[in-house]
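README: folding subset

This subset contains proteins for which both the sequence and a predicted structure token string are available. Records are stored as plain text. Below is the entry for 1-phosphofructokinase (319 residues), shown exactly as it appears on disk.
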Amino acid sequence: MILTVTPNPSLDRTYEVPELRRGGLLRAEGDRVEPGGKGVNVARAVAAAGGATTAVLPLGGAEGALLARLLDGRGIDVAGVELAGSTRVNVTLVEPDGLLTKVNAPGPSLSPAEAEALIETVRARSADAEWIACCGSLPRGLAPAWYAELVARVHRAGARIALDTSGQALTAALAHRPDVVKPNADELAEAAGRPLRTVGEAVEAARELRARGAGAVLASLGADGQLLVEDGGIYWGHAPVAAVRSDVGAGDASLAGFLAAGGRGPSALAAAVAHGAAAVGLPGSAMPTAADLAPSAVVTTADVPLDRPLTAGRGGGTT
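--- output ---
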């Protein structure tokens, strides 16, 4: 079972509009609402592929109740921490040509008691988890050191931690040795403090994160594949993608595949690549089912193309 932690989850509401006009009345031609947040997406991906998962998250107001119902309807065990505030709602406007305009709410401010209850819920539910995936930004009320405290406390309970966050929250947590960290190319560059121009430079940045405390680094490089740097070696993987429909949640799907496959070695990297490649071929934030995966199309190798220029963020046909 994979347990996910999402400190700042959301309801993601999408409206399809014929044209975005500032100051005008927009009549939506379609709308949908989905569970949101990086840890929530990991749980959705695990469940979509047939795995067992528990989602720990703060829930508040009618929005939180709806989020819990949506997750339950997807076969996800919900371990909610009740908030005085309301779960945030993010809004996306989609135009006919696919252009997105997004408005992300800041989310509620958690009190010290609510922050402590969230950590204790994770610790209490960790006994049955093979992995705990802690993902996403921190809401108001949680200091950057909150993930560090969570990693330290849950490690004492014997659980393995995968951490997908950035900035000060990532830096603070490294000292407590998360078992896996999962940056994308931009987050890896931010953590290294310099631009990354090649896969080889990404390898060096990942090594630096390991020297600072990360057990392993799984880096999503967008069109340039995925990189795994761990005790057992350095591996690179990629798969062709016929058409990119949406990259929303693709990194979260990759992390779900990696952890579900054991979270170690080239076979887990191959699963991460397969899940990421399938996710970008699906609309919106849809998560791949087992039928969507094409593991035979994945290539993984220890012969890492160190001189390959990084094109992440500029599109491409592989993941």
